Every structure is written in C-alpha cells, then in structure tokens.
From TrEMBL:
InterPro entries: ESCRT-I_UEV_domain (IPR052070), UBQ-conjugating_enzyme/RWD (IPR016135), UEV_N (IPR008883). Residues 9-94 form the UEV domain. It comes from Kluyveromyces marxianus (Yeast). Coiled coil: none annotated. It holds the Pfam family UEV. This is UEV domain-containing protein.
Length: 94
C-alpha cells in the first residue's frame, strides 16, 4: 500500500457530498480519505438499486485492486452499516 496524498479538490467535493445526507459524515469522510490515500480508487456518486427495487444516490469508490475491477458502495448509515464490495458485473464478498 502506498500512501498518496488525496487532492484538495477531491477532499472538498467529498466533504460537500457527505454532509447533507450521511448519518455520520465525519467518520465516513475520515475512513474514505484513508482508503483513497492507500488504494488506487476514485470516488463518485451513483444511483444504487437495492434488492427491493428502491434506489438511492450513494458514494462509491471504484477502480481495480490487484487487477480486479471493483466498486465499493458506502451506505448512508455508515459506519453502522458496512459498505458492500462488488466485482464489476458480479457481487463479491470480501
């Protein structure tokens, strides 16, 4: 794992995204920044569709880990609810 500084522009965007809708934006911000600093993942917001058909705009981190393309969905109730990690195209439990 390399510790790479997260650009200020990304930090500012992340802070703005988490503040209005995430239950614990401070913990979520801290943990996501740690992940971004250690892995080659990028953040974005996307619509996540739950198994019951409902959907929500969530923060996701995407990229590749050891050559495997993944997306990590961060729920709005994080850290009470753990993120889910999906291999592109299939669900993958880590």
């Amino acid at each position: 794992m390399n510790n790479v500084p997260v650009p200020q522009q990304v930090l500012d965007w992340l802070f703005k995204v988490l503040q209005p809708t995430y239950k614990d934006p401070k913990s979520t911000f801290h943990d996501v920044v740690q992940v971004l600093a250690h892995f080659k993942l990028r953040p974005r917001t996307r619509v996540f569709t739950f198994p019951d058909g409902s959907s929500a705009l969530l923060l996701s981190l995407y990229g590749t880990l050891q050559g495997v393309p993944i997306v990590i969905w961060v729920p709005k109730t994080y850290p009470e609810t753990i993120p889910s990690c999906w291999k592109y195209g299939k669900r993958h439990i880590l």
